[in-house]
Amino acid sequence: MQQNEHETPNLRPMRAEDIDRVLEIIYDHDEDDAATAEYTYRESGLTDKFVLVHEDDILGTTGFNAVEDTDRTYWLSWTYLDDDYQGKGYGRLMMEGLFDILQARSARKIFLTTSDYQDEEDGDIYESARAFYVALGFVEELRHKDFYAPGETMIYYGYRFPGLAEAEPVSEAEQAEEKELGEDEEPLIPGALITGISEIPETKDAYGLEWRYTQDGTYFDAAMIEKVLAKAREWNARTLFASFPSDLEAIEALLGPKGFKQHGRLVDFFEDGIDDCHWRFDFQSAPNGGAAKGKPHHGGNKKRRGKGGRR
Ligand SMILES: CC(C)(COP(=O)(O)OP(=O)(O)OC[C@H]1O[C@@H](n2cnc3c(N)ncnc32)[C@H](O)[C@@H]1OP(=O)(O)O)[C@@H](O)C(=O)NCCC(=O)NCCS
């Protein structure tokens, strides 16, 4: 860009008074994302959300969320540029600004999700976004076919920050805490228990399996899996998605025989060497094709369906 320093747009933290303009930019491209973004900005606040500004104008927005219980892993949040400013290098400028912020926090990996949604008028509206992320160094890691709805794939991209060979050094306080646990304490042996299923937002009849860690190596059993599959059938689920850390080695022997298919992984998601392994169970289409029992469906207002990560 041929601009002097005074004119160069810069990234600054998003403020409450920016929300309307940011929503306008998102809405222009994706009504669903704008609705979800509005809810999230107002409910969860604007921490780690940013705007690209030029003088007093807001040209675009981006941001991130830290993923709990991981070693410095992040999701990219809504990343949009005003139509008038696309294709001029501002997207790269905005993302490089974001990467500088993340690198200052010793970020290790950042992930995003997008889709291959085909708009009736405009076709593959995320094609250029996918090319953009690849140009920035993101790598496609996983695809879920028929995720949002039959025919619409969810695509995960991951970016590994360079120059981070080792995990963050353990602080003195953490070392002291570890010592306090005592030498004869039983080591924690992670296992997993299923806690339920819920419909995945922005999807049509796709459900996610919810679970929590145990600390004594116990796992859910075959009966529990049968129970959640029955519940998902009752609610007319199309697909039940699940994901578990790759170091929970017992999962494969539990899910495989019940008809779940392993479906790729997000590499080094939890920490280096521990991936997020994805599974899915596809149900036959329900014979009545119809309404769920006891579980509300959200309406079909999806003109466009957009992505940009977990927010
Ligand atoms: C995606 C978006 C943020 C990209 O910003 P942008 O300013 O248009 O992109 P830039 O001009 O900075 O391009 C950066 C790089 O991406 C590449 N790129 C961008 N669009 C591309 C396309 N359609 N095909 C191929 N490469 C493309 C550019 O070639 C450039 O590569 P280079 O820097 O190595 O030369 C912006 O276009 C946008 O907001 N689009 C609509 C909303 C959207 O889809 N958001 C993403 C939701 S997942």
Give the topology:
Elements: E1 10-13, H1 19-29, H2 31-44, E2 49-54, E3 57-66, E4 73-76, E5 80-81, H3 90-104, E6 109-115, E7 118-119, E8 123-124, H4 127-135, E9 139-149, E10 152-160, H5 172-180, E11 191-199, E12 206-214, H6 222-234, E13 239-245, H7 251-255, E14 261-271, E15 274-282
Parallel strand pairs: 4-6, 12-13
Antiparallel strand pairs: 1-2, 2-3, 3-4, 3-5, 6-10, 7-8, 9-10, 11-12, 13-15, 14-15
The chain binds coenzyme A.
Pfam family, one: Acetyltransf_1
GO molecular function, one term: N-acetyltransferase activity
Protein name: GNAT family N-acetyltransferase
Summary, kept brief:
The protein has helices at 19-29, 31-44, 90-104, 127-135, 172-180, 222-234, 251-255, and strands at residues 10-13, 49-54, 57-66, 73-76, 80-81, 109-115, 118-119, 123-124, 139-149, 152-160, 191-199, 206-214, 239-245, 261-271, 274-282. It has 311 residues and is of the alpha+beta class. Strand 9 (139-149) and strand 10 (152-160) form a beta hairpin.
Could you explain the architecture of this structure?
With 311 residues, the protein is α+β, with helices and mostly antiparallel strands. The chain has 2 domains: 7-160, Gcn5-related N-acetyltransferase (GNAT) (Aminopeptidase, 3-Layer(aba) Sandwich), CATH 3.40.630; 191-282, Aminopeptidase (3-Layer(aba) Sandwich). 24% of the residues lie in helices and 33% in strands. The strands form 3 sheets. Strands 1, 2, 3, 4, 5, 6, 9 and 10 form an 8-stranded mixed β-sheet that branches. Strands 11-12-13-15-14 form a 5-stranded mixed β-sheet. Strand 11 and strand 12 (206-214) form a beta hairpin. The two termini are 30 Å apart. The structure holds coenzyme A (COA). Coenzyme A is lined by residues 29, 79-81, 86-92, 114, 126, 128-129, 131-132, 135, 306-308. Residues 286-311 are annotated as: Disordered.
